Amino acid sequence: MSWSDAGVSILALAVFAGGLVLARAIGRALVTMRARRLEELEHRGSVHGSDMILRVSLIFVWAGGAFGALCLLPGLAWVSSGDREALEIAARLFGVAAFIVGFGVLVALSGMRLFVLEPDRITRSGPLRERSIRFDDITRLREAGAFPSLRVEATDSAIRLPKSIAGFDDVFNRLVAQTHPDVFTHTIPAEPADGVSMLGESTTAARYAVTARRLRINIGVLALLFLLCVTWPWFVVNGEHPVRDAFIFAGMSLLLWLGIYAMVRSESLQPDQPIELELHPRTIRWRVLRGGWQERDRTELVSASVETTIIYVKGQAGHRYPLRLRFVDGTVVKVDDFRARHFGSSTQLVGHDIRRRFVTTDARDPADELAAADHLEAGRAAEAAGESLAAVESYERAIAHWPSARNLALHRHLGDVLRTVAGSLPSSNRSERMSAIAMRQRAVGHYRAHVDHFPTDADAWQGIGATLAGDYRTDLADEAIETAEQLLLSGRAQSTTHLLDGIVAD
């Protein structure tokens, strides 16, 4: 390589590096702008936002800056030689780069929307304007559009809350606490079961179901695709060995069909999730695809909580909000985001509907309170004897029988107990490690159930963060700890420790 070639290479690298430096400066300016807006809004209430869109926009800014810097090379050639073609190339490169950078900046500005929970309203604060809805004016909360989000509607305005914002659970629980229950209504006429009087109780039930039309469409499309994959090679393939080649292409098509089937099954045909869920005054009934009805009494439901998780695709975090119904016999019924959308709702709204119907002492029998007292006594005795898991089971039965505010406060205590048990388990083999993971998941479930009812308990949020901190990815733990910090700094934090006085063993 000659010295001139080396000089051109060095110049190209220098120009490329200059473009990255410029893109970095633009990116830092955008990040600084967002941080400044966060500081300006913190005095008004708890601030929630997501930096995912900002991170995506910075990719465009960096790519555009690096690409745009290359226009200097043909530009220098035009300055030195007066070549008009070099000038045209430089202008085109600059135009494309400017478009990419401009698009990235616009995306970044849209991603700078922050949501402020003020004492009497929720506000969406954008770079250019704000929109607020008072809690008293909210008329409906519903799942919005194709992207995971919650639409908060008033008579003359609406705000869409992306579920990717940090602390979405806290936002939803605050909205639930401040909003009239009618905005969540999802009912069908209920018919009393044989021999059961519904006098004095709610005469409405709720039914969530995947429509038969959706199932027929999914199955029909899969069947047609299967037929197409098997038959098309016999009409198209020619050559010296048409039969052999047709079998080969049919096999390749079937592999593609299996991939499509796996994706459809993971979203629409999950065999372990209910396709029908009915909430009657005394019972919860559900059935899975190709399965019979299962039923549980209301005194068997321990919790119905959205246990937020994060999945990673190429290093990028994505939130998932599975609803899990946990019963005293260990049964766990899962409803994920896709299934809830098939129900025409969201996991948060379905979970809230279940809690307001069953996790309450309204219309409960006095015998349920007596049974809960017996289970509390058994739990205290087991905990005093050092039998932690037996104590947890007894306390869970007490919550299920009589979900009063004092008993619901047990959820945080049970999370602490299970987290301690999980930490004490040895990790010398795979089965013990899996047991510890399952115990931590169960602990997180109790913490989540606690903040459903006591969203301002910073200790419970810290418990979630501490339980999840041992995982490989800590984004979810960081979100929970950030929520706890916001509660403490804003003065909204309220402890529930006093509710446990006299309930658990000292």
Describe it for me?
It contains 16 helices and 17 strands. The protein has 506 residues and is of the alpha+beta class. α13 (410-424) packs antiparallel against α14 (430-453) and α15 packs antiparallel against α16. The longest helix has 39 residues, at 3-41. The protein is globular. The model is unreliable at 189-203 (pLDDT under 50).
Q: Which key terms come to mind for this protein?
A:
single chain; 506 residues; alpha+beta; four-stranded antiparallel sheet; 16% strand; globular
Brief write-up:
The protein has 506 residues and is of the alpha+beta class. The protein has helices at 3-41, 52-69, 72-81, 84-110, 168-178, 212-236, 242-267, 337-342, 347-358, 366-384, 388-401, 405-408, 410-424, 430-453, 458-468, 475-490, and strands at residues 46-48, 114-117, 121-125, 130-134, 140-143, 149-153, 158-162, 188-189, 204-209, 274-279, 283-288, 294-297, 301-306, 309-313, 316-320, 323-327, 332-335. It has a five-stranded antiparallel β-sheet.
